[in-house]
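Sanity check

After download, print the first record. It should look like this:
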Amino acid sequence: MEHTEILGHYARPEPPADNRQWQLQANRQWQLQANRQWQLQANREYKDRLFKAIFGRDTEESKRWRLDLYNALNGTDYKDPDALTLTTIENVIYITMKNDISFLIGSQMNLYEEQSSYNPNMPLRGLMYFAQLYQMNLSARGLDLFGSTLMKIPAPSFVVFYNGDRELPDVSEQRLSDAFEPAGSTEGFEWTAKVINIGGNHSEGLQKKCRALYDYCRYVNRVKGNLKAGMPNRNAVEDAMDYAIRGNFLDGFFKAQKMEVMNMSLTEFDQEEYDRNRRREGREEGEKIGFERGECSGIAIGKQETARNLLGMGVLSCEQIAQATGLPLEDISKMSKAL
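Expected structure tokens:
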């Protein structure tokens, strides 16, 4: 998004005609507010979040940590980090995953997402994401969904790592059927997200099995503890950074990548604070500041693409796809006839 578009999003207050000083001060506040949101928007566009930087990159250390996390979750003992093939979809605007890691291992397609705010819509977002993953998988294998042969696909595994303040059990499950209207109209269809609470002292057994996750959680908990103690964001992050470097967290990753981790952390916690303030003002949790007409158009295109993918998979009815995507049933029916 262009800086000028962000500026246009904020209405400049109309000052009294006889108060020049008030006008200058109001204009400055308006400019600072717009500049800050522009910086957050720019960071979201090109910077990974810390969880993704640790577990979701194509570096040797990230491959090793990703394998350790997978083994810890599944009770497996894979040794070769290259056995996991990254399949993460970048820039999925209409799904708005911010911390997603997707990879294929054997016959299992995995999607990991870290969340600092509780979101009951993760099963639907996961379903939309997996529709894209399966389309890519089938295309890469040159398979035709419209033939008479059953197409085998990797089994899905969707895990949400929750790191927020809401009290949740160590492990819980979100079901897509909870969103169906009318209730109980699943007709045997279900899609789930496994939610693992890694905040505070939760999931200690899992953290003991995966040192990288343990170090990540210790760092995040240190930042959050500092913020709750009243430290400014930058001081809270700097103290946690020094704590991680002294403890040699992630085998020196925090020391080697200090500036990048600092920038990612400040962006994340600034954004979390900004989102909390918006929710206090009564705005919906999922609303995104800065959405303009061009982005809304991108969302509509993304919904249409997802609908076509779901139709091609032949799993959901037109009515269910219309409900999942928010598109009119008439449009879904037209797409179905065109396939």
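If your output differs, re-run the checksum step. Summary of this record's structure: Residues 20-46 form the longest helix (27 residues).
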